[in-house]
Amino acid sequence: MKKNLLLGCALLAAGTSFAAIPNDGCTYEAKDGIEMKSVWCASRLINPEAWTKVFQETGLDGDYNRRCCVFNDKIYVTHGEKIVEGEGESATESYPWWLVSFDLMTGELIDKKPLMFENQQFQGLLTAMNIGTDDFGHIWVSGFNGGAEGTLIPIYVLDPETATLTKAGEPIEWPVDDAASRARIDFCDIAGDVTGEQAEGVYGAAGAATTYCYRFVREQDSPTWEPGMDGYAAWPGEDVKLWPDNVAAWGDNSTLIFADGTTTMFYANGRNTLPTCYSCEGGVSELKGSFEMAGEGCSPDKPGTTGAFEFVLGDHMYLAYGNAQGDKGSTSKISRMGGDATGGTFEGMELMWNMPAGEAIYSDISNGGQALRGMYPVYKEDANGKKGVYILSFYPKTVMALYLVAEPGFSAGVNDIVADNDVNAPVEYFNLQGVKVSNPENGLYIVRQGNTVTKRYVVK
Fold first, then answer.
1. Contact predicate 235/283, CB 8 Å
2. In this structure, how many other beta carbons lie within 10 angstroms of the beta carbon of residue 353?
3. Sign of dihedral through CA atoms 244, 211, 343, 430?
4. What is the mean pLDDT of each run of 10 residues along the chain (460 residues)?
5. C-alpha distances in Å from residue 33, one per residue of 59, 240, 352, 406
6. Local structure of 195: helix, strand or coil
7. Distance of alpha carbon 337 from alpha carbon 364, whole angstroms
8. pTM here?
9. What are 163's strand-pairing partners?
10. Burial class for 91, CB neighbours closer than 10 Å (0-12, 13-18, 19+)
11. Given 3-state DSSP classes, what are the helix, strand and coil percentages for the chain, each rounded to the nearest 5?
12. How far apart are CA 420 and CA 450, in angstroms?
C-alpha cells in the first residue's frame, strides 16, 4: 500500500468561507492532533432540501448512476437515463448519457451536458457507469460488461469542458485461451496513463461472483490493451484468499481499486466480501492485508461493494471506505492504517471516525447495494503550509458530502483558492516520501510549480 500521490493539489490562502449546502450537523473529535469536520452534506435524511437539489433535480436519483470523480475542484458524475417510446410490443428503449458537474467546495450544481461521442449523444445501458482519474491528469470512462463471449470492453478519455469522449486505444478484446476466467464486470479502475502517451496504462477489474481479478496493460505509445497477469487476463481464482473466509466468491457488483502510486497492488471486494488488499506482482496473487487484522471498530458492519481509498496526511496513511453497504443509512468510516506514510497496513489499523457521527444516518431507504461507495481524496495546502485532505463521499440516490481531515490550524474555503498563473515559476521535484530531488531520474515525482502541486512521470 504505497503513498497516495498529490494529484491535482492547489495551495489555499488563509480566510473563512462557507459552503452553500449545510454540513451534516455532527461534531467530530480531533484525534492525535488531526482535525475532522463536515463541510457540506446533501443527504436524504440529514439535509433533504440539499438532497433534492443534488439528486432529484438533476436526475441522479435514478437507477443508472454509479460513480463520480473529482478533477480540478469539480465533481463529475456520469448519469444515464432510460427513455421508453411507444407501448406494448412496439415499445423501444434508449439510454442516453449525461455529464453532471458540481463545485467541490460548495456542492452547488455547475452544469448538466449531454455526454458526446463521435458527434452524437452517448448511448447504451450502463455503458458509461464507470468514471475516474488516472495518474496523469486524465478522466477516463468505461462501462458495465456482461462477460458474454466476443464482447469488447471500450475505454474512453473524457474532455470535461465539452463532455466529449474519445477512444483510449482499441477496445479490450478478451483472449480466446483465457475465456474460462471471464465473468461480468461491474466496477473497474485505471492506473498509470490511460492515453498511453507518457507511460503505460493499466485496467483492473474483479469478475462478479468469482474470485478472478483482471488486468490489462496498454504499453506506452501502443493502441492495444494486452493481458497483464503474466500473459493472462486473470490471476487464478483458486489462489485468492477472501475475507470473510467463509465465502466462496466476491459476490455481485464486485470492484477493484488500485492502491495509489502502483499498478500491481489493489483492493478488491463485492457484495459478499470486505475490501481486501492484494498484490499481483508477476501475475502471482498475494494477500497483503484484510480487516481480519485491523483494530476494533475498523471493519465495515457487513460485506458489500464499499470500495477502499487511501490517502496520506502527515506521517500516516489512512483508509476511507463505506459501511453497511446497501443498508438504510449507508454510512462510512475513516481509519488510520498501521505502518507509515510510505506504506500502510491493516495490522495496527485504528478507527478514527464514523460518518455521520453518533446515531445519525444518511438515508431512510436502501439503494440495493448496486453501486460503488466512493470516497475520493483531494489534497490541499494553505498559505501557511498546513495540509488538509478533502474527502468526497458519494453513494448514488443516498448522499453526496464533503469532509475535511486536516492538520491543526489548516485554513481553507471556497473563496480561498489561489490560481497560479505564473508559468515561469521554478519547478521543484520531490520523491514519494516528500524529499526534494535536485536531479530526478526516470520515475514518478511530486512536482511543485508556484502554487500548483501535481504528480508527474519523468522520462529522460
1. yes
2. 21
3. negative
4. 41 44 95 96 94 94 89 95 91 95 95 97 94 95 93 97 98 91 94 95 94 94 94 77 88 90 90 90 77 95 86 94 75 94 94 93 73 87 91 91 96 48 63 72 69 58
5. 40, 38, 12, 9
6. coil
7. 31
8. 0.87
9. none
10. exposed
11. 5, 45, 50
12. 6
Dihedral sign, CA of 14, 18, 22, 26?
positive
- Give residue 11's region: left, alpha or beta (phi > 0; psi -120 to 50): beta
Q: Looking at residue 78, what is its pLDDT?
A: 96
What contacts 257, CB < 8 A, 6 or more positions away? Answer: 189, 266, 267, 268, 275, 307, 308, 309
Q: Is 3.30.420.40 the CATH number for 27-410?
A: no
Q: Give 153's contacts (C-beta < 8 A, 6+ positions apart).
A: 142, 145, 171, 172, 174, 185, 203
- pLDDT at res. 8: 39
Degrees (nearest 5) of the Cα angle 98, 260, 375? 50
For the chain, the domains span 27-410
How far is residue 444's CA from residue 460's CA, in Å, rounded to a whole number?
12
Cell of 271: 457484495
Per DSSP, what are the bridge partners of residue 175? none
What is the C-alpha separation between 398 and 42, in angstroms, rounded? 8
Q: Which of 206, 204, 252 is nearest to 371 (CA)?
A: 252
